[in-house]
Amino acid sequence: MVSNAYGERFRQAVAETGVIAIVRGVPSTHVIELGQALYAGGVRVMEVTLNTPDAHRSIAALCQHFFGRMQIGAGTVLSASEAREAIAFGASFLVAPHVDPVVVEAGLAEGVPVLPGALTPSEIAAALRAGAPMVKVFPANRGGTAYLRQVQAVAPGLPLVAVGGVTLANVEGFFVAGAKAVGLGSSLVDREAIKDGNYSVITCRAKAFIEAYRRSRIR
């Protein structure tokens, strides 16, 4: 099982802003500028999905550029071999779309935290038993904030990350319902803005999401 120190370090990084930026389909030639825009907006945890072209190149470039400043991870990890390869390119955490003990074990064997995707209470419990420091509730918009609140009512304090359908309009509701963080794809990483070179849009959105997180913490 992964050392508690690794999982705790990751949880602390996530707790700083409550946001994990999910990068999907962004060319490797643009990821540094994107990372700079996210960093300027306060984001400190960033995930590149492995179904992105040149994902490993992007992960390696981001790890080098933001060494010591951001946690860079790999998402959509579907096998143990993908987990090991992503770690070799520098990924400091892994995210899977479902609970697969083989993927979890591959990451934990290298001291790298793994966030499995889960939806039902049984899946969430299985992910935590496997050693996950946090669990991705996906798709979060399927049950919405009411579902998340019900799950937390049964087992308060679960380290859940809401992913899927989270927007500026509903993000504060997810935090209030008990999400420890949110994973943000297109609602934060706007590919049209990237294409146009308008990175300030992304910085502004990042600031708005993080401000919503901080408001929810003082309620």
From TrEMBL:
Record field: transmembrane: none
Keywords: Carbohydrate metabolism, Lyase
Entry-linked CDD domains: KDPG_aldolase
Signal peptide: none
InterPro entries cross-referenced by the UniProt entry: Aldlse_KDPG_KHG, Aldolase_TIM
Keyword set includes Lyase: yes
Pfam families (alphabetical): Aldolase
UniProt cross-references to Gene3D superfamilies, sorted A to Z: Aldolase class I (3.20.20.70)
Molecular function per GO: lyase activity
Superkingdom classification of source: Bacteria
Pathway: Carbohydrate acid metabolism
Lyase recorded as keyword: yes
UniProt similarity note: Belongs to the KHG/KDPG aldolase family.
Quaternary context: Homotrimer.
Protein's UniProt name: 2-dehydro-3-deoxy-phosphogluconate aldolase
Gene: eda
